[in-house]
Design brief:
Layout lengths: L2 E2 L1 E4 L2 E5 L11 E5 L5 E12 L2 E8 L10 E4 L5 H9 L16 H6 L17 H16 L10 E4 L9 E4 L4 E4 L5 E4 L6 E3 L6 E6 L3 E3 L13 E3 L1 E8 L8 E6 L8 E8 L4 E9 L5 E5 L7 E6 L4 E6 L3 E6 L5 E8 L4 E9 L14 E11 L14 E3 L3 E5 L9 E9 L8 E8 L7 E7 L3 E8 L2 E10 L5 E9 L2 E6 L5 E3 L10 E4 L11 E9 L5 H8 L1
Length: about 550
């Protein structure tokens, strides 16, 4: 199946999600450029950022074009893309009839111009690898671990239910993305199972810390609280990302050689980092610019609503775009205040590369759901009316007495997705602690540099600390830690196993905690797809298997 792709340049494109493990250097790519034809190239590099992967190619012949619709890729070096077709060509070991050589399935994989080189046998996956890929798929689909002891606590988010031993609280309502890709409200104390807005697949249990949307009338840009400059607002002009007809159109007037925008006066505190986000849908205008007030936060960003390219400016710490259904994007820019005071946060219309131009009196785009919050990245949307809106922290725990906890040995497995940005200090995916303090703990934590570690501490004395891997924003991982007295092991994404043959176990543990620490100061702010506790210490091979 082709992967949807966005044209970036004659030799690069972007695809949704973190696919750096698929688009590695040497992989062959077939690009479908519609009327411009099918073009072949070889991957020279791939980087992931903000839930998208940018891929660069060495093209065989012609360049990529703006009509790029999708790509297909081989699973190895150039040979893998062509050998299947070659084997079925006339003279091959399993020839097809001439009429079948150009069947659509073969054309999508290779052309007769591709040369065959290398030994196919060297590219056949070992039986053990193929078997484990099947086992991993079964675990993802059913929340089971075939061939292993059954976990006594098994939170598998795609089941859309918490284990009976889990307790969940949140002292406010909140929102999530539902299976239809819509922003949907969730009642107080109800868990939020978040979904990918484009595929509808369950991403996991959303666990966030507290936040406040400081912008009032976030969906009512026609309200007098909003300043419209050389522009007008048509209220409820389109269907919004929540499925209601509440999206407003921002349209330029006919003023010559000037800017056209909507803005709000907001207050900032020196030294505090803020993120402003909007939901934007292109109309006659297909790009916008979001600015903080230069006197307080000299940060801005330009967003191309056709290519999905976010370009930060000034002192912006980051600029992000998340694709939503029906052409909507959630765009955001982050900056740190250099002074205390009030100023305008602005959303400009743009004509091509210009934010200053002569308007035609009608053109514009759709806006909905503005949010200004403290922090280094956008959290889930908080709708507001006449007053700002607070979201309380998500708290999810289980008593160890209710899950058959074994004080002598055990294993903790977590499959999770990092937040839209890295934490200021740290973010805890899960931990086991005493319930009153966490001086003794077993923990999976991500630091401000993105380092994922497993930590076992006894009265603040480290018993083991495995640095598993460095993660980026919105990246996913599977990790597992097993423990016995003087025997600790951990693995991540099927990689090498970390081991330690010394260390003691905490004896006063009482609570399994998901998505944060005791004080909620290290909130995960991401999703947990699967969390399992085994009352047995799994072997190194088993840890690799379940994290593959």
């Amino acid at each position: 199946m082709a992967i949807a792709a966005t044209f970036l340049s004659p030799a690069s494109f972007s695809v949704p999600g973190d696919l750096t493990t698929e688009f590695v250097a040497g992989v062959r790519v077939l690009a479908d450029c519609g009327p411009d034809g099918l073009l072949l190239g070889t991957v020279t590099g791939a980087t992931a950022s903000d839930d998208a992967t940018t891929v660069t190619l060495q093209m065989d012949a012609g360049p990529l074009t703006a009509t790029l619709a999708g790509v297909r890729h081989g699973n190895d070096v150039p040979d893998s893309l062509c050998n299947h077709a070659a084997q079925h060509a006339p003279g091959g070991r399993d020839p097809l009839a001439t009429a079948s050589i150009d069947a659509p399935g073969l054309v999508e994989l290779a052309t007769t111009a591709e040369a065959v080189a290398g030994a196919d046998a060297a590219r056949v996956a070992p039986v053990a690898v193929a078997r484990q890929q099947f086992v991993s798929w079964m675990r993802d689909a059913l929340g089971e671990f075939p061939g292993l002891p059954r976990p006594t606590f098994n939170l598998h988010a795609p089941s859309l239910a918490l284990p009976t031993a889990a307790t969940f609280t949140r002292a406010s309502a909140a929102t999530r993305i539902n299976a239809a890709g819509l922003v949907a409200g969730v009642a107080m104390d109800a868990p939020r199972f978040d979904h990918d807005p484009l595929t509808g697949l369950c991403r996991g249990l959303l666990i966030e810390g507290p936040a406040t949307n400081q912008i009032t009338y976030a969906e009512a840009l026609d309200n007098a609280a909003w300043t419209k400059t050389r522009a007008g607002i048509t209220a409820d002009a389109a269907t919004a990302p929540d499925g209601a007809a509440t999206a407003d159109k921002l349209a330029e007037d006919a003023t010559a050689a000037n800017s056209h925008y909507v803005a709000r006066t907001m207050t900032f505190t020196a030294g505090v980092t803020y993120t402003i986000s909007w939901h934007v849908q292109p109309g006659e205008r297909t790009s916008c610019q979001v600015n903080f007030p230069a006197a307080f936060i000299p940060a801005n960003a330009v967003f191309d609503l056709q290519t999905g390219l976010a370009t930060p400016g000034g002192s912006a710490l980051s600029a992000r775009m998340e694709a939503l259904p029906d052409g909507w994007w959630r765009v955001s820019v982050t900056g740190t205040a250099i002074a205390t005071g009030s100023g305008l946060v602005v959303c400009f219309l743009r004509l091509g590369a210009a934010s200053t131009y002569t308007g035609d009196g009608a053109s514009g785009l759709r806006l909905w759901g503005a949010q200004l919050e403290e922090g280094t990245y956008p959290t889930s949307y908080l709708p507001t009316a006449a007053v700002s809106q607070v979201r309380a922290a998500d708290l999810c725990t289980a008593n160890l007495a209710d899950i058959g906890f074994n004080p002598r040995e055990g294993t903790l497995f977590v499959d999770a997705r990092v937040a839209a940005g890295l934490p200021v200090t740290a973010a805890v995916a899960c931990q086991i602690d005493s319930g009153a303090t966490e001086s003794s703990r077993i923990r999976f934590v991500v630091t401000s540099t993105g380092l994922l570690s497993t930590v076992v501490a006894l009265s603040e004395a480290s018993q083991c600390n495995f640095p598993l891997r460095t993660l980026s924003a919105r990246s996913e991982f599977k990790a597992a830690l097993s423990w016995r007295q003087n025997d600790f092991k951990a693995a991540c994404n099927g990689g090498s196993v970390f081991t330690s043959a010394s260390g003691s176990l905490p004896a006063d543990l009482t609570t399994l905690r998901m998505g944060g620490n005791i004080s909620a100061s290290y909130a995960w702010n991401g999703v947990i797809r699967h969390l399992a506790y085994f009352p047995r210490a799994l072997t190194a091979e088993q840890l690799q298997a379940i994290t593959l």
